[in-house]
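Hi R.,

Here's the chain you asked about this morning:
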Amino acid sequence: MTFQLISPNITPPLDPDFRPAVLTNQYFQQTVTATGVAAPLAIALERADGVISRYDTVIYPADHPDAGDNLPYIERILKFLLWQRGGWKVYIGGSAQVAAHIKQVYAPSGERAFDHKFMGDTVYEQPFAVVACGVDEVPPANEQGQPLGRNLDGYRIGFDLGASDRKVSAVVNGEAIFSEEVVWQPRQQSDPAYHYNEIVAALRSAQAKMPRLDAIGGSSAGIYVNNRPMVASLYRGIPAENFDQIKNMFLRIRDEFGVPLEVVNDGDVTALAGSMSLEDNEVLGLAMGSSEAVGYVDNEGHITGWLNELAFAPVDYQPDAPVDEWSGDQGVGALYFSQQAVFRLAPKTGINLPAAGPDADKLKHVQQFLEDGHEGAAQIWQTIGVYLGYTAAHYASFYNLRHVLILGRVTSGRGGPLILENAQRVLSREFPALAGQIEIQLPDEKSRRVGQSIAAASLPSLD
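And here is the predicted structure, written out as tokens:
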């Protein structure tokens, strides 16, 4: 970062160099506006089926002595938007200098070559492109929120595909009458038939408990576009030459069962379940597990069709922020809101991680120190809470939010209340207006009333 980074008033106990994205972005916007010569800049992102997201901001005019600060500011904004909303074509309107910079950085050999290939070839199956244009030539937003969910009528199946088990429920008029959980090992499988057969077996098991079947809804980790898994860790053992069988798997299952079928990212289904339980909208669900999983329900109660892969969206602008080993970028959410954050911070407290064993056991090892009253362990979760307070405000710059539900194994035990307490402290002190607008909460009985399987089963409409 070459532009002004702003220190937080509340410092994370174990990360004094943390520079929240929200503070730097706010400072930049305020400073530009104060010049009296702010220039408009618009970003549009086109994804599948001509759907377009648009984001408008202000920058320094090209002849301003600080115009160079526009470049890192817009690059970080675009990086967030790509992983929040998705897109294979990016329009940069209002600055030829900024557009040229983005083209260079997001080129096949540029600093963000990973994003270029991932968003273009992998997710949207289109050549990734950056288009420079005038601000008035940037396409208007053309969002098409998916009115999925809240359909509780009839005989339905809800399923959830996890890395260690697959769950399925038979749901009749909104009530689960049968549920089954089966251990499986999807990541180690190289044959697409394994996944197909396991999922079909789960569906047949639930179908047998009902006199008829009207619809199937499912949730799974990964990126889904029109019921096609484009990227998902569950299928990482599948060779590239066979991946089309995975992409078309749910379309094949839909045809075989002959009923409406919808499958979406598990984060969106979690947010939908929370929205249905709370009987309110504008809900962000944030699960802190092996990574950061996020879902969102908008003000109309719709799933947006956005990626919501905030694990790879930047939240910390410090120059020496930790680097994500997969995407190669710095300061992204997965390193702040998952067990990766716990593992990164634990050595700073003198807690050594086990040399071997699964990550789940390593997390439990650190959590035991917390439960035993270890002061350093408490600082780990306090640090994550401070991260969350500033990041919730950052997310509120890109989402309309009323509720943020925090879930996942990192929030279990004493950790969840520590995260919540420190996040609320940050919002109250630094963002008092947002503190009165956004409720950050751990799932309670009210927000858990509708389970994941029922929310998933409710996805398809029978109309």
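One quick note: The CA atoms of residues 218 and 263 lie 4 Å apart.

Cheers,
M.
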